[in-house]
Amino acid sequence: MHFRILFALLILISFFSRPALAQQKLKTENVILITLDGFRWRELFTGADADLIRDKDYVEDRDALKKLFWDDDLLVRRQKLLPFIWGTLAKEGQLYGNRQHQNLVNVSNQHRFSYPGYSEILTGFADDERINSNDKKDNPNRTVLEFINEQKGFRKKVAAFGSWDVFPFIINAKRSGIPVNAGFATAEDLRLTDREKFLNQLQTQIPSPWGSVRLDAFTHHYALEYLKKNSPRLVYIAYGETDDFAHGGHYDAYLKSAHQTDAFIKDLWTWVQRSPKYKNKTTLLITTDHGRGNGNGTWRNHGANVAEADQTWFMVIGPDTPAFGEMKQPQQHYTNQVAKTVATLLGINYLAERPVGEIISSALTPENLTATNK
């Protein structure tokens, strides 16, 4: 009995002596949440896969691809693939999920494919019973986007853009009232910019290789134009090409798409740092909806029966995130932590129908605290 009392007292002392994030004023006023569909932690942290580059079934011109993305040094190799992430974000932000250091990030849902993965990211919990397919059915769960859109100061300051045409259902656009430009939707506004008009026209003229996913360039530029015009405080951007190229067995296109998405993220961050409304007030949080297999036979796929399909990652950069870079200490995180982290950055206590994943506390630690990552 005495041991239990002592243990309880120690817990209370620890709780009241540590800095409370909720009680501290954060610098972040805006959040841009970004996802790369089905992009593996292996390419993120080790660059191009030598075995897949050599496989003629997945690569048309192996020499050309090696010239673009290969180097024997994995540190050089990963920077060739993702120059902004490793040249800027890794120096000024944080990256989680390098399993070579036992720094683990996983989905908590059992299905390990897109709709359940995105729902987990956006709600903060897995709903394995009701969210069990990629069908176009409205999400019965309220997302953090919808929750924040209902808060004072955020009404009509939340928007989403996605390449996959299922996002209006994942976000439940009808119920939430959040503008969701996804799939092959065009920009709709009484005051369209010249670029939006051009994107609307161009999207009808350039066919996508897939019936339900448009090319990411449209998603990116629609989102950037919306940011410039409407100054939202929370934007979700979901790039989709990496997953579709992988399913098709096009490893060369998968790598090139990841490289281009890295350039898109650089484009966003450069604009943020030049905009008075966003500079030093904006955090980017980047992640993926699921992993995928490893090896010749399984890298194209994911799902409940595919090893490594539950293995994910995330990255954070912003004014409240210490520049720890690549997180190398052994620890376990889950995709369900993203929703509450987004809300906390915006000064909001996120509450959902079910218990949600805890905030990624090390990504939100005030800069004046001692860094523990060595």
Automatic annotation (TrEMBL):
Residues 1-22 form the signal peptide. Residues 242-348 form the Sulfatase N-terminal domain. The keyword Signal applies. The keyword Aminoacyl-tRNA synthetase does not apply. Keywords: Signal. InterPro entries: Alkaline_phosphatase_core_sf, Sulfatase_N. This is LTA synthase family protein.
